[in-house]
Amino acid sequence: xxxxxxxxxxxxxxxxxxxxxxxxxxxxxxxxxxxxxxxxxxxxxxxxxxxxxxxxxxxxxxxxxxxxxxxxxxxxxxxxxxxxxxxxxxxxxxxxxxxxxxxxxxxxxxxxxxxxxxxxxxxxxxxxxxxxxxxxxxxxxxxxxxxxxxxxxxxxxxxxxxxxxxxxxxxxxxxxxxxxxxxxxxxxxxxxxxxxxxxxxxxxxxxxxxxxxxxxxxxxxxxxxxxxxxxxxxxxxxxxxxxxxxxxxxxxxxxxxxxxxxxxxxxxxxxx
Length: 272
Hints:
Blueprint: H1 2-5, E1 7-9, E2 15-17, E3 21-22, H2 30-42, E4 46-48, H3 56-65, E5 74-79, H4 86-100, E6 107-110, H5 124-139, E7 146-149, H6 153-161, E8 169-173, H7 181-190, E9 193-197, H8 209-218, H9 222-232, E10 236-238, H10 244-249, H11 259-266
Helix pairs in contact: 2-3, 3-4, 4-5, 8-9
């Protein structure tokens, strides 16, 4: 499936597979191991995890056991959102790399600009301190690219204005009806790749009749149309499932939505 083998190029020249397999809310152990192995067997070559997910060890084991050469698999993990100091950032990175046991990380992200229990609070100084550690890790070759997650324009401007290396990616919540146009446009202007997590709005889009009517025209599922929409907007989708047939289905998106159907999806309000 070309959608699984096609890549985006980050601003530093590193290539990243256009579809990633997300592991948010998949428990550590057999569920993570089996779903990642299923994804890899289906052709996914980009796995997204985080220290906060608690499943890095199972992700790493599944990758090692797959028999696929490590250099063919792109691994993203994230520094916990509550870590806003240099020592904490170094410790988090060491813990993630030890649990994954896969050598250098391909993409390392600040999980959020604020702790999850204080969304919207100002931690810009802490983010700068953490980012300087990220720059050290990047320069040392311990991660091939560095980025952020859940950052809006003001957060990005603060970080970029005080550091040397601009983020290579920003992973944000992005789906039909919730396209974060201001942040997306800013990232495009700066050459920051936008990755879209929850491309199915954590399942809510699956009942959307408007998307279903478009999907019927192509003989595809609502999930496939929703994921294809991101790709046609040059957004990297990160679908997640633990159901083998859905893992495969979510990557079977080698079709083209017409400009009219893309415009119809642009006009949808998913209730956000």
